[in-house]
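A quick aside before the break. I want you to see a complete sequence-to-structure record at least once, exactly as it would be stored in a machine-readable document. Don't worry about memorizing anything.
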Amino acid sequence: MKARRAVERSQSQKSWIEGVFNKRECSKIIPSSKDPHRCTAGCQVCQNLIRCYCGRLIGDHHGIDYSWTISAANGNENEQWSVEKHTTKSPTDTFGTINFQDGEHTHHSKYIRTSYDTKADHLLHLMLKEWKMELPKLVISVHGGIQNFRMPSKLKEIFSQGLVKAAETTGAWIITEGINTGVSKHVGDALKAHSFRSLRKIWTVGIPPWGVIENQRDLIGKDVVCLYQTLGNPLSKLTTLNSMHSHFILSDDGTVGKYGNEMNLRRNLEKYLSLQKIHSREYHRGSATRPGWGAAM
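That is the input. The structure line, written in tokens, reads:
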């Protein structure tokens, strides 16, 4: 009986997620190159070398007729590709649990791919009700860029200790880009050192663009448990997820290799979090408070 109820609950959760959360995909090819070579239907040059403004190669637009001619491309030369006009939504097919293998340790992270304009109340419901996170008393939003940089050892130690202490003592959520480069990696390093010393979980939410994530195919599936390879191609412009984040919201605007729209989703979620009331006997007997706010880097 318990097993059947668990299966029914899982199916209900999957149905709700597919009904609320969407992915985005490019629905119209607008070539970024106007190279006037003599193009014919099915041209291999177009398919394998020329990219659409969304960032994908022409041939990677599965389900779209890409046998355009150069005259058709010239006819669209004044048309500007945009997320709103040239992408379509459909129910997300990418959510579940990632198992990151790190030596002798395995880290489990919940994740979902969802459109960058997803409503914040839906995201918070997912995080609290489905992912079983606790509403934070403090939100630490970490910014600092995606480029790799070296942090002096003393500064890194101070940053790591301060970040972990703030999160541990306040029940905070840490929000970053969630990737293996830039400041997100330094946050991951701090959490990794902490995980060896303490069993206490720190909620760390990564919000990167779906289109910059390497090894995407590992993640596609509905309510799946997947192994994810964090070793990326050093020649690739894409990046991998940081294994020390406990949750990932993969913001999808239908583009590949581009940053920007994930910040809309992140700002909306952080603003919505700041409006929530926390009922806490520990801090205010029977009264309600709002999450505190902090920013780093």
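Two observations worth writing down. Residues 97 and 225 are 5 Å apart (CA to CA). Residues 280-287 have pLDDT under 50 and may be disordered. We'll return to this after the break.
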